Amino acid sequence: MKAILTDITKCIGCTQCVTACKMINNLPPDKPREWQKNDGLSSRNWTSVLRKQDFFVRKQCRHCNEPACAAACPVGALHKTELGAVVYDSNKCLGCRYCMMACPYGIPRYDWDSAVPYIRKCILCYDNLISGKIDQPACTKNCPTGATIFGERDFLIQEAHRRISENPNLYSDIIYGETEVGGTNVLYITSKDCPLDFLLYYNNRIEKGLNLVGEPDFDSPYPQLTKWAMSSVPFAFVGMGAIMSGIYWVVKRRQKIEKEKKEKENEEDRQN
Ligand code: SF4
Ligand code: SF4
Ligand code: SF4
Questions:
Q1: C-alpha dihedral over 48, 44, 134, 261, to 10 degrees?
Q2: Distance (Å, rounded) from C-alpha 55 to C-alpha 65?
Q3: Is the pLDDT of residue 56 over 70?
Q4: Three-state DSSP string of the chain
Q5: Residue of the nearest CA to atom 6 in ligand 1?
Q6: Per-domain residue ranges for the chain?
Q7: pLDDT tens for residues 236-260?
Q8: CA-based nearest residue to 11, from 60, 46, 61
Q9: What is the atom index within ligand 1 of the atom nearest the CA of 61?
Q10: What's domain 2-227's architecture?
Q11: What is the pLDDT of residues 178-193, one digit of tens each?
């Protein structure tokens, strides 16, 4: 299984990983949304860099071995691949946002700008890796200091142990993601002066002295928003028939848009 190891002691906060991710995934600039200001992640930003005192901490989906997002999804729109990536199938998604509630790191974000909204998050460059178009994710490839690297998970864990044992005064002896939440495919090692517990969703909300590095982001949900979103679908109190009708409408609408998109592409192919 493939994984990413990010070494906080080597990160200079240049945000080239953020730019590279946006480019390879054709992600447009963020739209200002003051009420959603948060940690830099959004439907248009799948990785971000946070500043904590003198350190820079890259944030992205952790690609959990046992992904809570996938477990919470009622239609299997998210799943763990053999490569290690947790990927998403927009054709199956109902837009219920249970994955957003379930993720222990607060990663999945809702695409508020789309007529038929989807969930967005880092997919470990899965499609491009599987097709052989690239041999490592754009973020790791473009990191100028080697602060974030790609490889076999077992190898990266060995490498993390090596760095820690060779420099015990610098490094904390924790490999974040080795066992955390059942193990993840995005691992971190860090300085003793910069514990990373704040990356866990709820801790993140109360962490002081945490700032976003680079382009300001206004497009990611507060927990309050998530609460609001979820409380707007209270299965216990609203008629199930109405909900199912809504879901049916969303699915149908999505299928219609996909169909029209395909027909348009076929028409363009015929004309070329
Ligand atoms: S970090 Fe969150 S979104 Fe990513 S795989 Fe884990 S549970 Fe899913
Ligand atoms: S692995 Fe790919 S999708 Fe994920 S943050 Fe890096 S460049 Fe973006
Ligand atoms: S590209 Fe590397 S050094 Fe620059 S912010 Fe990203 S992880 Fe840090």
A1: 170
A2: 27
A3: yes
A4: CEEEEEEHHHCCCCCHHHHHHHHHCCCCCCCCCHHHCCCCCECCECCEEEEECCEEEEECCCCECCCHHHHHCCCCCEEECCCCCEEECCCCCCCCCHHHHHCCCCCCEECCCCCCCCEECCCCCHHHHHCCCCCCCHHHHCCCCCCEEEEEHHHHHHHHHHHHHHCCCCECCCCECCCHHHCECEEEECECCCCCHHHCHHHHHHCCCEEEECCCCCCCCCHHHHHHHHHCCCCCCCCHHHHHHHHHHHHHHHHHHHHHHHHHHHHHHHHC
A5: 64
A6: 2-227, 239-271
A7: 334 444 444 444 445 555 556 666 7
A8: 60
A9: 4
A10: 2-Layer Sandwich (3.30)
A11: 999 999 999 999 999 9
Ligand 3 centroid to Cα of residue 7, in Å, is 10
268 Cα–ligand 3 center, Å: 40
Q: Which ligand is nearest to the CA of 124?
A: 2
- Which ligand places an atom closest to the C-alpha of 41? 2
CA 239 to ligand 1 centroid distance, Å: 31
Q: Candidates 64, 81, 89, 119: which one to mutate for ligand 1, based on the most atoms within 8 Å of Cβ?
A: 64
Q: Which atom of ligand 3 lies nearest, measured to the CA of 10?
A: 3
Residue 145 Cβ < 6 Å to ligand 3: yes
